[in-house]
Amino acid sequence: NLQNPTIANSTLATAGTYTLIVSNANGCTANATTSVVVNDAPTVSIPNVDPLCEGESIALTAVVTNAASYSWSGPNGFTSNEQNPTIDNATTANAGAYTLVVTTGECAAEATTNVVVNAAPAANASNNGPYCEGATIYLQTTATGTYAWSGPNGFSSTQQNPTIDNAATTNGGTYRLVVTGANGCAANVSTDVVVNTTPTLTASNTGAYCDGETISLSATSNA
After folding, report:
1. How far is the C-alpha of 53 from the C-alpha of 5, rounded, in Å?
2. Rounded distance between C-alpha atoms, residue 213 and residue 200, angstroms
3. What 8-state DSSP symbol labels residue 75?
4. Distance of alpha carbon 169 from its chain centroid, rounded?
5. Mean per-residue pLDDT for 206-210?
6. Residue 14, Cβ neighbours under 10 Å: how many?
7. Is the entire prediction scored with pTM above 0.85?
């Protein structure tokens, strides 16, 4: 019975023709109608993205109904019109809030998710070679975390700075190190070890000699 009524929280069921009858004091009436259109608004939700490590891909997924267009925005200038975009080789600059706006006609819906990209540990690997056969190989890193070394001749170690005693030429080659930080992210580095062959050597002379004779010394080597 209001002159200008409102209907809150409209649904598709509230669409249709509305008729108004106006009566004045002398009993006369007038009719008017208006047609109300209620569009089926889209819905959207974004499942959480598990924490990632640098270098992995961010997979954004939208669960939608009745959506005609998509507009993503996010950190590092990210935009996309795809429903489920991906960002390859993510860095910490890609971490943050990602927002999706879906539209159908004049209606829109919005959802946001927060993406965590953890940094990989700063890793390095080195040795103090080159070495000679029989020397001790010193593998070194200053990185912080847990360690997994692997290398030639079946070598493996979980020490930060392992050593290999009595090195042979078969111990030469590339040693790889995987350092895993407290956040579960890992970095891969390597160092090349050179083990040089020790020369063989024999020494001889042509003696015994008598006083006054010339002593002749000789050496044989593969050096």
Report:
1. 55
2. 30
3. G
4. 38
5. 92
6. 12
7. no
State how far the alpha carbon of 139 is from the alpha carbons of 8, 129, 169, 181, in Å. 72, 9, 16, 19
- Segment 77-88 shows an average pLDDT of 97
Residues whose CB falls within 8 Å of the CB of residue 180, separated by 6 or more in sequence, listed in order: 121, 145, 146, 148, 186
For residue 206, which amino acid is it? T
Residues contacting residue 181 through CB under 8 Å, at least 6 positions apart: 118, 119, 120, 121, 144, 145, 187
Q: What pLDDT score was predicted for residue 176?
A: 98
Helix, strand and coil content of the chain, in percent to the nearest 5, comes to: 5, 45, 45
Distance CA 112, CA 81 (A): 15
The CB-side HSE value for 1 (13 A sphere, CA atoms) comes to 0
Q: What is the length of the chain?
A: 223
Question: Count H helices, E strands: the chain?
Answer: 0, 23
Please give the structure tokens belonging to residue 126.
Answer: 């080195």
Among all chains, which residue has been given the structure tokens 């078969």? 170
Instruction: Write the CA distances from 37 to 17, 124, 195, integer angstroms.
Output: 9, 65, 83
Main-chain dihedrals φ then ψ at residue 120, nearest 5 degrees? -75, 150
CA distances from 223 to 129, 135, 136 (A): 19, 18, 21
pLDDT, tens digit (0-9, with 9 covering 90-100), for 121-169? 999 999 999 999 999 999 999 999 999 999 999 999 999 999 999 999 9
